[in-house]
Specification:
With 306 residues, the protein is an alpha/beta fold. The protein has helices at 2-25, 28-31, 57-68, 87-96, 138-154, 173-179, 234-237, 252-257, 270-273; strands spanning 44-51, 74-80, 99-104, 112-113, 121-125, 130-134, 160-164, 170-171, 185-187, 190-193, 196-204, 207-212, 228-231, 267-268, 278-279. The strands form four sheets. A seven-stranded mixed beta sheet has the order 3-2-1-7-13-9-14, with helices on both faces. The protein has a three-stranded antiparallel beta sheet with strand order 4-6-5, with no helix packed on it. The longest helix is centred in the first third of the chain and has 24 residues, at 2-25. The termini are far apart.
Length: 306
């Protein structure tokens, strides 16, 4: 009998070991659920991202959100160019574990307009077509700034940084560490933009003295939206600051920066603007075969969210 009791004890211990090994072997499935670390000593970064419905939207937002999950004290303000909030974006945000605010506002004027308003749109021509390209994301960013001001008035800790982020750009984690150093407005280089390998502020003795830019270099601030961030409290001090529909595409950066700083006051970051931590990447428009042109039509997949 004592031998039987000992045998039962070994069996029980063996079963516990088996359960423990099973749990730890399946643990990676749980590790995918990232809980953001909150540090009250770090300024909150408010990332403002306009987005619009297209085939690659979910892919772009998924890539961006999984980068942002690794950023501490980050609040994502995402604004859809839509009459209503879509389930695609809503579900992606819920599954992301990010702290977020989901807004929507429809652009008042289409990106490609037939109106010849040089104050709003830029004339573009090619071998195949001519069109007017209008600034995008204006209403969406302004809606986010309206939300931001209301939010900051209600919270005790107003420390923060505002960063305007395209949904298909690429960001290194170091850029978020850099922008937490900002006192007013910080700047850094951006890769693959404006027809250049890198568009960047030029720095002499720790001060911005010019810009290395070839596309419309006469702009007040010849810089990409991914190349600067602004102290959040400045938006409370300047309630009039906003983007404008009366400004051409490519001049929106200068339009918002004029409220807060001069060239001489800009704070060069990223090792005196010698390191690239943000890239103006653009997702190529997917080429999808028309099912009607195929001899054997594929199985319908409209029920699957892509």
């Amino acid at each position: 009998m004592p031998f039987v009791n000992i045998k039962k004890q070994y069996i029980a211990i063996g079963m516990l070991v088996f359960v423990a090994l099973f749990f730890f072997n399946t643990r990676p499935a749980f590790q995918c659920q990232i809980t953001q670390e909150v540090n009250t000593y770090l300024p909150t970064i408010y990332g403002i991202t306009p987005t619009y419905a297209r085939l690659a939207q979910k892919a772009d937002l998924t890539r961006l959100s999984q980068t942002l999950m690794l950023v501490r004290n980050f609040h994502w303000v995402i604004i859809e160019d839509s009459e209503t909030k879509t389930k695609l974006v809503e579900n992606l945000l819920k599954e992301s574990t990010l702290k977020y605010t989901h807004l929507n506002v429809k652009t008042q004027k289409s990106k490609h307009s037939t109106g010849l308003d040089i104050n709003i749109c830029v004339f573009k021509t090619s071998k195949y077509y001519t069109s007017w390209y209008c600034a995008s994301g204006v209403e969406q960013r302004n809606a986010a700034l309206s939300w931001l001001r209301d939010h900051l008035r209600q919270v005790e800790d107003k420390k923060g940084v505002v960063y305007f982020m395209d949904d298909d750009n690429t960001y290194a984690l170091k850029v978020f560490d850099e922008m937490r150093k900002i006192k007013k407005v910080g700047v850094w280089p951006v890769g693959i933009v404006g027809g250049m390998r890198v568009e960047m502020p030029l720095v002499t003795d720790g001060k911005v003295t010019g810009f290395n830019a070839v596309w419309k270099s006469f702009r007040p601030f010849p810089i990409d939206m991914a190349g600067f961030a602004i102290n959040a409290t400045l938006f409370l001090n300047h309630p009039e600051a906003k983007f404008s529909r009366k400004v051409q595409s490519g001049f929106q950066e200068s339009e918002i920066l004029k409220y807060f700083t001069t060239r001489e006051e800009l704070e060069p970051l990223a090792d005196n603007c010698t390191k690239v931590y943000a890239w103006h990447t653009r997702t190529q428009k997917p080429s999808i075969t028309n099912p009607k042109k195929l001899k054997t039509p594929p199985i319908p997949d409209d029920h699957i969210e892509v």
